[in-house]
Amino acid sequence: MRKKNTSKKIILHSEKDFPVMPMSLGSMLFNKTGAWRNIKPVIDLDDCIQCGICWKFCPDVAIFIEKEFPVIDYDYCKGCGICAENCPAKCIKMVEEEK
Amino acid sequence: MRKVIMGNHALSYGAKLGRAQVIAAYPITPQTQVVELLSEMCADGTLDAKFIKVESEHSAMAASIGASLAGARTFTATSAQGLALMHELLHWASGARLPVVMGEINRAMAPGWSIWSDQNDSLSQRDTGWIQFYCSSNQEVLDTVLQAFKVSESLLIPSMVVLDAFTLSHTYEVVDVPEQKDVDKFLPPFKPQIRLTPDDPHAFGGLTSPDYYFEFRYKLQKEMEKAADLIEKTGREYEKLFGRYLGLMEEHHCDDAELILITSGTMGSTARVAVDELRKEGIKAGNLRIKVFRPFPFDAIRNILGRARKIAVIDRNISYGHHGIFFQEVKSALYGQNGNLPLFGFIAGLGGRDITPSDFKKIAHYALEKDNPEEEIVWTGVRQ
Fold it and tell me: Between chains, do B194 and A22 touch, taking CB under 8 Å as contact?
């Protein structure tokens, strides 16, 4: 998995701490949107044909290619299912998230 | 070098000497020759800038916002309906604190279609958070573009350099076009601290919760409040280099005036002639031409008008159901000052109808004869 930077949550106490314009201040490093997920994609790498379509289609950039195979970053995958829908080898299954 | 150029081209030369790096514009009516000349300059290499042709003014401002966020000095121009189409993105440019400079030719809003002078287009954008300069000569137009880049980039607030349609935009005047090396001394390159770059990635303008939104607006207003002083300071710097002061307003015989005519844009130069003629008749009239409309120069106006006995504001615009817009602003600036100073509000010249020195003299006589205005609005030149 890609190495992630770590960052503490940024809290702005005074208007003087604010940036000049509304902009992200690294908030996605601690705002793990994977928690929104109800179903999650699971890849069966035995059937994977390494086409890279899941990596290309992921709207959250939560799939990475490592050692020529896709790996899902569950910190940010929202479980939309686009990868499973588009996988030509049908090797991605959407499974219920255990909560 | 002295050149005979039209007001539109004074904007173009201003953008060129300001070394604009990106120019995004819609090239069809209500566009004017401003970007026509700039596109030629980009094509023949006189100006090292990227010219982006877009399909609407909305896209012109969107492209300007992107270019400015990437750290480029950005210029565009429009008029009337085109400015109205930009409206949404005018808020975006100021809210994102991007120092875009725009030439705005004051054309009357349709219907009916018009290419003549009227200020309702730019004054409709009053609350978008842009600095607005109203010019009265082609020289002032060119000089103000350079000043606008400097002020905008220092405060990170966009500016509109506004000029009257036809009476300036298509009128040729002698303009002293400064040397590039002198302009470079006045206006250093734009180097924003925050910009869109892969080296330091951020998302800009995303969802901003009530926890944070308020402070961004507070900061915009606080910077806007600094603009009046900064305009005077940069105006003096400009004067040192080029001999022409660029201030918040222009006074003509206001010191001992019994009646001050308040004007803006090219009306100001006509009113100056009328004031001189009135003085020959023994009438102590003066003219105050307001150049900077946003931020509204409260202090400077109170300082001058504190000495006046009567004031007549002449508006080439109207807020329907209220007054002329400069009249409202002057009235609010004077609230609580100088007792009950009689204020007369005149509407004249809508849709580019000529306002002549004799119109100003009639206005002056009307205001001098009456103790107080008899009507909320006095219409000048309506066919009865």
Answer: no
pTM of the predicted protein model:
0.89
Which of A67, A40, A72, A69 minimizes the C-alpha distance to A52? Answer: A69
Which value, in Å, is the radius of gyration of the alpha carbons in chain B?
21
Alpha carbon distance B144, B261 (integer Å)? 23
ipTM for the complex shown = 0.81
Query: Mutating which of B91, B215, B218 best tests the A interface, going by the most A Cβ atoms within 10 A?
Result: B215
What tens digit of pLDDT does each residue of B108-133 get? 999 999 999 999 999 999 999 999 99
Write down the domain spans for chain A.
Answer: 32-96
Return d(Cα B384, Cα B131) in angstroms, integer.
Answer: 38
CATH for A32-96 is 3.30.70.20
User: Which domains, from first to last, does chain B contain?
Assistant: 2-242 (3.40.50.970), 250-380 (3.40.50.920)
d(CA B289, CA B264): 5
Strand stretches in B113-210, DSSP E: 131-134, 159-164, 172-176
**Alpha carbon distance B376, B384 (integer Å):** 18
d(CA B291, CA B300): 12
Q: A23, B204: Cβ pair inside 8 Å?
A: yes
